């Protein structure tokens, strides 16, 4: 057969009219051979890498499917989303494969042409120990990428395969780690992909993408930018709250209407962390990591923490920079949102805004003052969908959630 790169170019040429979105996404990445990988293709860091040894003898139909999988993976932002703290990359890759399998079953996996995904094959083998129809289990639950990661992580942790801990020291682990080796958060590429998706939506240029995959891509894109947008809006609101006028006396001609202003680019923020029994160490770690690395980029002068379940776990807020031992403060009971809100209102002169990290499981609090800057960060998409209604109905409150 002809060399892989030449065959791929022929496939891409045929997509110009039939698959405009996939064509445009392909053009944002460099297609390059990597003779050192032991998997057919992988993507990340602006590249799509392939193995000629593994793809040189496959049919054009199978080659096209491998290419589509990587482009779908890119459109779903899997290589460019923030990864969970201390995540297992082989399981992350497995969750990506299963998400694509769920959304593209009819398109990619209905023919008996030998095409398959390592992650799906591995999970089928694992589930095959407990059911005669493992494939059906993969299609029953319609979960997001991050939900699949959590479910598979828990399932593999609790079960073993072949006498070894599943997901450890296996051929799949090597393949999964290699496939996700290029994965790292990249907001510039996320923005570029979002522009491509918005253009496809406006021009009806989705091509042959199935309805379920289209919906998944749109939801993923909506979240990625809603998360950053919510943080950006919160940051802007607390900076704007520190506006000061620069003119000491009114203008003779314009009075006070033309006064100048100056913004204090520093602000103090209070963060209230739900440490009730329903909050996992993983969720807390993801929240801490996100706030530390992706939001407070020198604009916040001071960040204080308080912790709560049914009441406050500490009487006074502590600096965010202090190392936190969650085991020492984690509660056992339910959740009451009134104590952290009351603390914030009582110390409002000290803080420009409040961030509440929680899973949303608790009674709706009472809040009267509309002049608040309060951002609720839910620990999952499921928690966000369940609780965003009552949160956004509270005065001065907005909500978003972590991808993991």
Percentage of residues in helical conformation: 40-55%
Q: What is the molecular shape? A: elongated
- Number of continuous helical runs: 16
Q: Strand portion, in percent?
A: 5-15%
Order of helices and strands: HHEEEHHHHHHHEEHHHEEEHEEHHEEHE
Structural class: alpha/beta
Unreliable parts: 161-169
Average pLDDT: 81
Please characterize this protein's 3D structure.
The chain is α/β, with parallel strands linked by helices and 404 residues long. Helix content is 47%, strand content 14%. It has 16 helices and 13 strands. The chain has helices at residues 4-18, 20-27, 52-55, 60-75, 89-103, 105-108, 118-127, 134-140, 145-158, 171-179, 187-203, 211-240, 281-294, 326-329, 338-346, 381-393; strands spanning 30-33, 41-44, 47-50, 160-161, 164-165, 243-245, 261-263, 267-274, 300-308, 318-319, 353-358, 374-378, 397-401. Strands 10-9-8-11-12-13 form a six-stranded mixed beta sheet, sandwiched between helices. A three-stranded mixed beta sheet has the order 1-3-2. Strands 4-5 form a two-stranded antiparallel sheet. The chain starts with a helix and ends with a strand. Mean pLDDT is 81; it is low at 161-169.
């Amino acid at each position: 057969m002809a060399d892989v790169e030449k065959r791929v170019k022929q496939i891409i040429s045929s997509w110009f009219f039939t698959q405009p979105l996939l064509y445009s996404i392909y053009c944002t990445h460099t297609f390059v051979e990597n003779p050192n990988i032991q998997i057919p293709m992988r993507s990340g860091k602006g590249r799509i890498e392939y193995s000629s040894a593994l793809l040189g003898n496959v049919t054009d139909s199978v080659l096209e499917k491998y290419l589509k999988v990587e482009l779908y993976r890119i459109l779903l932002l899997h290589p460019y989303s923030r990864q969970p703290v201390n995540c297992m990359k082989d399981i992350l890759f497995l969750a990506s494969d299963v998400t694509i399998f769920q959304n593209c079953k009819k398109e990619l996996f209905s023919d008996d042409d030998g095409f398959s995904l390592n992650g799906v094959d591995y999970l089928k083998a694992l589930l095959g120990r407990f059911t005669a129809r493992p494939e059906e289990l993969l299609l029953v639950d319609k979960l997001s990428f991050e939900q699949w990661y959590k479910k598979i992580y828990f399932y593999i942790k609790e079960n073993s395969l072949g006498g070894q801990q599943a997901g450890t020291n296996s051929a799949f682990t090597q393949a999964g780690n290699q496939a996700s080796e290029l994965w790292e958060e990249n907001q510039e590429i996320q923005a570029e992909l979002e522009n491509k998706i918005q253009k496809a939506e406006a021009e009806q240029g989705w091509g042959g993408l199935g309805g379920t995959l289209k919906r998944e891509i749109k939801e993923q894109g909506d979240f990625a930018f809603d998360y950053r947008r919510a943080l950006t809006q919160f940051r802007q609101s607390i900076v704007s709250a520190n506006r000061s006028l620069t003119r000491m006396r009114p203008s003779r001609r314009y009075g006070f209407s033309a006064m100048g202003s100056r913004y204090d680019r520093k602000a103090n923020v209070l963060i209230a962390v739900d440490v009730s029994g329903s909050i996992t160490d993983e969720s807390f770690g993801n929240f801490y990591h996100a706030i530390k690395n992706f939001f407070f980029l020198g604009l916040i002068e001071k960040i204080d923490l308080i912790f709560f379940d049914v009441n406050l776990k500490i009487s006074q807020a502590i600096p965010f920079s202090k190392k936190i031992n969650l085991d020492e403060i984690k509660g056992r009971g339910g959740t009451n949102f009134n104590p952290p809100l009351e603390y914030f209102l009582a110390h409002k002169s000290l803080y420009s805004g409040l961030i509440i990290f929680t899973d949303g499981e608790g009674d709706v609090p009472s809040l009267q003052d509309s002049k608040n800057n309060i951002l609720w960060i839910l620990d999952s998409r499921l928690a966000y969908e369940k609780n965003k209604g009552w949160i956004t109905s509270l005065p001065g409150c907005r909500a978003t959630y972590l991808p993991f």
